[in-house]
Structure formats: C-alpha cells, structure tokens
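Have a close read of this protein, sequence plus structure tokens, and explain what the tokens say about the fold. Thanks in advance:
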Amino acid sequence: MRARTYHDSDADLDVLTGRTVAVVGYGNQGCAQAQNLRDSRVRVVVGNRDDDYRARAVHDGFEVLGIDQAARAGRIVLLLIPDEVQAGVVAEQIAPGLGAGDTLVVASGYNLAFGLLDLPADVDVVMVAPRMIGEAVRDRYLRGAGYPCLVSVERDVTGTALATALAVARGIGATAAGAIESSAREEAALDLFSEQAIWPTVFAVLQASYEVLADAGFSDEAILDEMYLSGEPAEVFARISEMGLLEQLRVHSRTSQYGQLLHLERSAELVGTLRDRFARILRGEILSGRFAAEWSAPGADTESRIRALLDRAGTHPLIAAERAVRARG
C-alpha cells in the first residue's frame, strides 16, 4: 500500500499568518520545533510548568506562559509533553482553553489512537510526528535537509485542518524531505510495535549470543566488542539506511556476505516463529488496546513498574559482563 508524500510545494506557511502557535512542553521536541517555527517567522509562545525546561525557553528568548495560559493564547496548540501525562494535562489545562476552530497538533498518535484525550468537539485535531529526535529536527532544519515525518488529519471541523497540519510540518522543516500521510492509529501501532516486538527481540538475541559465546570460553571483552561495544552495528544500520538491506552487504567481506546469506536461508523456521509472535503482539497487545489500558490505567505507578522491569533485566549475565568490561576501560 502506498501513502501520499507532501513536500514544501504542498504546504503554505501563510496559513499560519496571524495565528499564534503555542508549543506546550519545551523538552526534546518542543525546543526544536519552537525554534524552527520561530525561524520560519511564525508567532510562537511556549507553555511549560516551572522547571528547568521553562528556564531554558526563557533563555532562548521565548515568551513563556503557564500551560493553561498558552492554550488560551494559541490558535494552534502543539502537544509535546510525554504520552503518559497528556490525558491529565489536556483535561485540566489545555481543553478548557481551546476555542472553536482552534487546532490541536500531536506529535505522537498514542493518546488519540486509544481514545485517551477528552477534547472539545469544535476543534481540529491533527498529527505532525517527526521520526527524529529533537536535536536532529533542529539540526536538519538549519541545514535545510528535512527528515522523516508522519502527518494526518484526525478531525476536520473547519475544513482547513490538512492545510494547517502541512503548514506546521513545513514550519518545523519536515516537508523539505517529504512528510508522509498517515494516521494516529498507524503511527502509534508502528511505534509500539518497534518497542515491543523488534527491540526486545534484538535484546534477546544479544542475551542468547552472550550465553553461547561465554559457554564456549571466549572473553567478555571480545564478545561484547564483537556484538555492540565497538559500534559496528550502528555502522551497519547506517549503511542499511543509506543503501538498503541487501545492497549494504557489498561493503562486507565475501566471507561475511556468504555466511549471512547462507544462514538467512536456513532461518526460515525462526522467521515463521517470529512472525507468529509479532502478530500476537500487534493484534493481541497493541491494536486490541490491551497494552494502552495497562500502561495508561488511572493512577498507575509508571516509575515503579519500569524500575522493577529494569531490575529484573539487570540480572542477566550479559549486563554484569558489560559493567565489568566498562569498568576496566
């Protein structure tokens, strides 16, 4: 299935003329997006609680208001605070300040996809979701390079929601490389799938590899360097991004190419097992809403849950070996 891609020529920055954009949250994304919009000659105010991020926004020359004040001041409100606090902050501080015809912009589809935001019925709701950390969003804007970004219209009351979303995307530099038409459901599902299927499997592969190699009598230093401490995997992923999965094999030795391709063919059973597991995660945990209901349950102590999981993960011998190797320098 193909998706439409929007470029600078599809987006009109004049759509934002005379409309104040309130950037709520001056963290990783908020800092970058606020500065990019300002450099695109958009009127920006920042809404933030009284913390170090607020002080940073003041230092960077922005008018900084309380979150509730920013929501009232902005005709377009960018919601750039963590997923797990959005529902409460929106209900208590943002929704009451939104007026008819205003636009709420999310950078993560999570809370919209799982119905966790209680919003007035007379506001537009769109998504502009950079697929880059904030530092890269800022750096690539300054270089005019662009970066991957997903955009969607989740509710169009005014009939101009798409134009507003694309104007915001252009203002933060996303359409320079092409912003892809998507949905909050798609963005959230893909993000959660990477976090719950792909990366845990990578962790498990490293754990199993360490166990096998350590049992064979190889040193922790050599094993960890081979697996990831050398930084080689990052180089491989960079080449995959630049060249493609198979094309990047050309920069490996012939021995490496033969071994990788041979055992790829011999991994058909493993691929089938992973496909079944991943399908259960996608459908049974993510799309069903089961994970969202567990993670976003009212009053859930997210910090203690994460700490307990980290403590259990930290008991694997790979983690002890890594700490020892790092300590030895």
